[in-house]
Amino acid sequence: MAATYRVLVTDKLASEGLEVLKADPRFEVVVDSKLAGDPQALRTALGEADGVVIRSGTMLTPEVLRGQTRLKAIVRAGVGVDNIDVTTATRQGIVVMNTPGGNTLSTAEHTLALLLALSRNIAPACASLKAGRWDRSKYTGSQLAGKTLGIIGLGRVGQAVAQRAIGFGMKVLGHDPFLSPDRARELGIEPTPLAEMWCRCDYLTLHVPLTEETRHLIGPAQFAAMKPGVRIVNCARGGLIDEPALIAALDAGKVAGAAIDVFEPEPPPADDPLVRHPKVLVTPHLGASTEEAQISVAVEAARLLIDFLGEGRVRFAVNMPNLDKAELDELRHHLELGRRLGMLHAQMDRGAARSVKLDYRGDIASRNTRLISAAFTAGWMETALTESVNLVNALVLAQERGIQITESHSRDTEDFGSLISAEVVTDRKTYHASAALFGRQRMRLVGLGPYQIDCDLEGVMLIFTHLDRPGLIGSIGTLMGNHNVNIAQMNVGRAVKGGEAIGVVNLDSIPPEEALEALRALPDLYSVTVIQLPERGELPAWLL
Length: 544
Ligand SMILES: NC(=O)C1=CN([C@@H]2O[C@H](COP(=O)(O)OP(=O)(O)OC[C@H]3O[C@@H](n4cnc5c(N)ncnc54)[C@H](O)[C@@H]3O)[C@@H](O)[C@H]2O)C=CC1
Ligand SMILES: O=C(O)C(=O)COP(=O)(O)O
Prior knowledge:
Number of domains: 3
Number of strands: 22
Shape: elongated
Strand order of the largest sheet: 8-7-6-9-10-11-12
Strand content: 15-25%
CATH superfamily of the largest domain: D-3-phosphoglycerate dehydrogenase, domain 3
Oligomer: single chain
Number of helices: 18
Helix content: 25-40%
Largest sheet: 7 strands, parallel
Structural class: alpha/beta
Bound molecules: 1,4-dihydronicotinamide adenine dinucleotide, 2-oxo-3-(phosphonooxy)propanoic acid
CATH class of the largest domain: Alpha Beta
């Protein structure tokens, strides 16, 4: 059987992960770590891949990702996604996933290893002895027990470090805006504002992601506020510490020592002053480099890709809500209903969009409606945009265009188990349409403008407004027949007898232009629109 999906692996991945991918006949695996150092070749190779697995060595920059049309998934075998331009990936409709948890313990242990090695001068003492010296007093260290450790970032790694430091008899202070003070106390950590942390700690360790907000979290002002003789460990990301400011603080004696596992850039230049500094202990980004962590993240990365590309299941995505297989199976038809409603709106009114209001009623109101709104938006924008729109990027693309997509929810419905209504405001008009599923998957249009209607939301639909009078519907039928266009179904709706009414005719083919001209010339026919939707059962690739 020929493989369906091509997966590129551009960083060193444990063979156990590669085996998981290779064992699935749907997957062709291409391993090429040279690509990580060649952005142009990487860009070209990604053009022929459905998924890519990376670690921290591959930079997925905007230049590499822009314009990628085949690539659907990026999996980071590890935690930090700062080497991926997630914004560009999202705009391109590419899901970005990571494997949190798999390397937590190894990273926490490495942090403790650095903390101990720094305090006990392990590296210089080892080098000295190997050079033939027996220098015991020069390498007198400092004990961890009884000292205060400040942890910035109390996520998985930060908490695991806290637990271990407490085991060494340290007092632990912590700062994390997303951990409640009560939970921190339960973990034995004293929640502490950053300003207070600097002046109270003998040791500081960082465990936050690198973002625009955390870049240079520690700079000259923070070093100035620190307790003299503080020791610093960084096993998170190089950009978190302003490196020249750290060197100055080390030289001034304010900081007694630093242990650094991560750099900016990686690898650092051979003459990097921080790497060469005598008070700095360095390792080459080894936090996650244990056999156990590497097997765990590689196997998990492979499973994430198989689940996503093979089954449409989204786990550990950083740029879209997670979606498991059962939920996707259950929501699939509602997602498609939302998408078709969006496609209908786009064709009913081609004015400049201002806002969209989606109203969810009944059972569907308690489901993941944000995804249905994304599906609506994808359907609504897909013909207008050159880039492909899917569940990942639809809401972002709308937001970038200044279009607000809002939702309302209500458990009550009058006639339907679940009802989705969309109101789109453009510079021309405000248009309203509602749809519901009949049975599990029959998609029905049940409201158009002020009218109730009931017809299949599929294929070619001729929608017309007209005066509610005898004979008009018959002449439309005759006209279609004369042009050899077969009518599959016909439905009419009206607000009052003898007033303006709406008609929806499901056709087997698109009527020729002469037929439409003849229709428009019929007396008492006010508007005619031809809508083209997917046929019954047809789903886009991203919903299969
Ligand atoms: N050296 C290595 O090999 C490894 C490095 N890492 C790095 O460690 C970081 C943490 O990993 P995990 O603990 O697994 O991630 P996590 O997502 O569980 O924890 C990150 C924590 O940082 C907190 N945070 C975010 N901004 C903050 C701020 N401004 N101040 C204080 N806290 C803030 C978050 O609320 C979260 O609790 C990763 O983002 C990655 O950069 C992770 C694994 C291996
Ligand atoms: O998981 C992370 O964030 C790490 O920093 C580990 O990086 P690596 O996969 O070892 O290149």
